[in-house]
Amino acid sequence: MNDTRTQPTQSRAYGVLLFGIAAISMAAIFIRLAQAEGVPSSIIAGGRLFIAALILTPAVLRKPEYMMQLRGLGRFDLLLVTLSGFFLAMHFMAWVTSLEYTSVLISGVLVTTSPIWVALMEVFILRARLSRMVIAGLILAMTGGLIIGLSGGGALFEGADSVRGALLATTGAITVAAYLIIGRRLRGSVSVTPYIWSVYSIAALIIGIILIISRTPVTGYTVDGYLWVLACGLVPQLLGHSALNYALGYLPATYISLSTQTEPLLSALAAFIIFNEMPAWAQVIGGLVILSGVILATLGRSEARKTPPITIESAASQTVRTP
Question: N or C terminus: fewer CB in 10 A for the chain?
Fold first, then answer.
C-alpha cells in the first residue's frame, strides 16, 4: 500500500522539480527584458526582494509562533540577520548588474559557484577541512574560469565589459555564500519562513537606501518594465523556489542540489532562443568545466559532512528561500 501511494507522489515530485528549475532558469531572462525597457539593475534587484517580502508578510504576521521566534532573537542573532540581509542585497545587486556586461551563460555559471565559496569559507571561518573531491572541484572551476578569461567576451560582450560582468557574477557567488553560511548559523533559532521574510525585507530596505543615496528614480519606466520586475519576484522567487521545497519532501536533497546545476544551461538556451545570444565556444567549454567542478565540490561536501549540500538555487531546501 505504501509503495503504491509513494510512487505517484514521487513522480509528481519529479515533475514539480522540473517546473521549479525551469522557473528559476527564467530569472536571467526576465532581468534582461526589464533592462531592455530601461529599468536600472538596482531597481530590478530591489523589486524582486520587495515583492518576495511582501508576499511572505501575511504568512508571517498571521502565525503567532513566527512572531514569537522573531521577538525572541537576541542582539547577536539580530546582527546576523541584518548581516545576512546585507549580503543577500549585495548578491542580487552584483548578479543582476552582471547581466548588463556578460552573457547569460557566463553570468549564470559563475554565480552558481557558491558551493565552492561556501566550502572555502568553512575552512577559514569554521576551520573545516577540504575533502579531495572539493579540492578537485575547486581546481576544475579555476580551470574553467581561466578558459573563459582567455576566450574574451565573444561576439556580444568584449574587453573590459566582459571582465566586469564576470567579476560581478563572481561577487554575487561570494556574497550569497556568506549569506548561506549565516543562514546555517541561524537555523536553530528561527524557522525558515520568518527568517527569509526578515532577510528579504532587510535586503530590500538596504537596496532602497542605495536607490535614495544614488538618486535613482523608481518611477517613469514603461509598464512592460515593471511587469518584468514583477515576473522576477513571482516566477523564479515564489513559484520556482516553492517547487524546490515541495520536491525536497519526496526526493533526496543532494539530487535536488545537483539538478539545479542545470539552471545556467537552461538560462543560456532560453537566451539563445529569445535574444539570439550565442557565447563563444571557448566560453561554453569553460562554463561546462566550471559546472563540473561545482558538481564535484557539491558531492564532496555532501560525502564529507553527510549533510545536504547547498547551492544557490537549492538553498530553498536548506535555509533561505521562499516556502
Answer: N
Contact 94, 175 (CB under 8 A): yes
Q: Say what the alpha-carbon torsion angle 145, 151, 157, 161 is, to the nearest 10 degrees.
A: 60
Q: Measured in whole angstroms, how far is the alpha carbon of residue 203 from the centre of its chain?
A: 14
Query: In one letter, which amino acid is 12?
Result: R
b/e 246-271 (16+ beta carbons within 10 angstroms → b): bbbebbebbebbbbbbbbbbbbbebb
pLDDT of 289-304, one tens digit each?
A: 998 988 888 887 666 5
pTM reported for the whole predicted model: 0.85
Q: How many CB atoms sit inside 10 A of residue 293's CB?
A: 24
How far apart CA 29 and CA 44 sit, in angstroms, is: 12
- Measured between alpha carbons, how far is 152 from 145 in angstroms, rounded to an integer? 11
Alpha carbons within 13 angstroms on the beta-carbon side of residue 221 total 21
Give the whole-angstrom CA distance, residue 107 versus residue 31: 12
Domain boundaries, the chain: 2-317
Q: What is the pLDDT of residues 263-284, one digit of tens each?
A: 898 999 999 999 988 877 888 8
Kindly report, residue by residue over 197-221, the tens digit of the pLDDT: 999 999 999 999 999 999 999 999 9
List of residues 6+ apart from 292 with CB closer than 8 A: 137, 140, 144
- Integer Cα distance of 211 and 217 in angstroms: 8
Cell of 30: 526576465
pLDDT band at 122 (very low <50, low <70, confident <90, very high): confident
Instruction: Give the CA distances from residue 110 to residues 22, 124, 174, 196, 311, in Å, rounded to whole numbers and listed in that order.
Output: 19, 21, 10, 24, 12
